[in-house]
Amino acid sequence: MVFDFMKRGAGAQPEVKASATGPAIAYSSAGRVAWSPRDTTTLTRVGFTGNPVGFRSVKLIAEAASALPLVLQNREARFEDHPLLSVISRPNPVQGRSDLFEALYAQILLSGNGYLEAVGDWGQVPAELHVLRSDRMSLVPGTDGWPIAYEYAVGNRKHRFHVENGHSPVCHIKSFHPADDHYGLSPIQAAATAIDVHNSASRWSKGLLDNAARPSGAIVYGGSDGQSSMSSDQYDRLLTEMESHHQGARNAGRPMLLEGGLDWKPMGFSPSDMEFQKTKEAAAREIALAFGVPPMLLGIQGDATYGNYQEANRAFYRLTVLPLVQKVAGSIGHWLSEMTGEAVELKPDLDQVSALAPERDAQWNRVAKADFLTADEKRAMLGLPPLTENAQAEVFDEMPAGDGDVQTEETPDA
Questions:
Q1: Is 91 exposed, middle or buried (0-12, 13-18, 19+ CB in 10 A)?
Q2: Which class for 49: exposed (0-12), middle (13-18), buried (19 or more C-beta within 10 A)?
Q3: 294 and 306 in contact (C-beta within 8 Å)?
Q4: What is the DSSP code (8-state) at residue 14?
Q5: Could you read off the pLDDT of 5-54 as tens digits, one per residue?
Q6: In which domain of life is the source organism classified (predicted)?
Q7: Could you say which DSSP state residue 37 is in?
Q8: Phi/psi of residue 92, each to 5°?
């Protein structure tokens, strides 16, 4: 009991509430770097820079998402002019808003993780915003499972962004990963098998073109007795002649002159060769499916999921672009709110998305005809902040007068 009393002495730390699973996901030691389970560099090279379907899918989503306008508001008003809007519209000297967000969305699609750095002191509006490459960033978890630092490595040089009291100079946006506590799962990882199939099919087509764009055949040597074989010199000479005069695109269609004893036996396509192009198209559709892009928008033939291009484009914005933008904008808005101490919300302006104009018009008409709702309730359904007292007074002043005069209490005749 004495020793227990001494342990509970003046030097005891106050109890801190935290998740019970924190120590379990903190790995075996504090400060250990939790590496990503997949090689982002290789996947980016194979699935983005080396695959046209993956490249176009990432570019289509990133460009469409970065083009959406963003609005900043709190519970009372929507801001037309705000210091946070200024830094978002011009985040750094070399990038504009669209350039910054395009890079951020592309990093999330390629690696499942996006990192945004704020330059400035905590408690103030950041002076600049920068997107950091995901393949260079490592998360360092603490004993409670939460990150205590982010380490950015370029070659042998490293820089550590420390997380102090929950204040992080880096905004980490990640996709859901069922088997990783610190890193997200990218669509390109889910489509890795389809990307390998598509790339292998492209290499097969390239090899076919290199061989005169037709199926190979066989040169049969009969010999004088019909059973003799060629000597080593004859075989090497024939091989050299074939490679220099009859193989490759530049020699396509050149007639072949065979000496005595040699006979050319052409070979046709096998059924598996004829189905190879269909396998490539199926792999392309799987890649587009993993990214959430309708194959019709990528020009992939044989897909009739949507009735027309406009319907496919609307589904692309509703199911892929908007969820991504809302997730990223919400994370950045929450991060900036903690940094500045001002409760604000950053979200896309749906009224300016041309692809969703028919749905938005129908919603506006439906809400406008709901006479049982007040003006503030209608605005809340449309995602708008309530009107201020001055704005409400202006609305009532601009309302047209009724058909007759306002009835007042009548006084009896004298």
A1: buried
A2: exposed
A3: yes
A4: P
A5: 444 444 555 555 666 666 666 554 444 544 334 678 888 998 999 999 99
A6: Bacteria
A7: S
A8: -155, 170
Residues in the chain: 414
Instruction: Dump pLDDT digits (tens) for 86-143.
Output: 999 999 999 999 999 999 999 999 999 999 999 998 889 999 999 999 999 999 998 8
The domain locations on the chain are: 19-213+287-352, 356-397
Task: Give the single-character DSSP code of 284.
Answer: H
The separation between CA 239 and the C-alpha centre of its own chain, rounded to angstroms, equals 50
Q: C-alpha distances in angstroms, 164 versus 34, 147, 148, 170, 372?
A: 19, 10, 7, 12, 50
Task: Please choose, from the candidates 152, 115, 178, 131, the residue with its C-alpha nearest in 3D space to the C-alpha of residue 33.
Answer: 152
Q: The tokens of 52 are what?
A: 């046209």
Residue from 375, 325, 327, 384 nearest 351 by CA:
384
Q: Are 75 and 153 in contact (CB under 8 A)?
A: no
Q: How far apart are CA 312 and CA 244, in angstroms?
A: 50
Q: Is 354 helix (H, G, I), strand (E, B) or coil?
A: helix
CA atoms of 294 and 243, how far apart (whole Å): 44
Q: Where are the beta strands (DSSP E) in 366-413?
A: none
Tell me the two tokens of residue 288.
């587009």
CB 295 within 8 A of CB 288: yes
Hey, how many other C-beta atoms are within 10 angstroms of the C-beta on 297?
19
Q: What are the phi and psi torsion angles at 398 (to 5°)?
A: -85, -5
Q: Can you tell me the distance from the alpha carbon of 108 to that of 328, in angstroms, rounded to the nearest whole number?
A: 10
| Cβ atoms < 10 Å from Cβ of 303 | 17
- Chain CA centroid to CA 99, Å: 14
Contact 312, 297 (CB under 8 A): yes
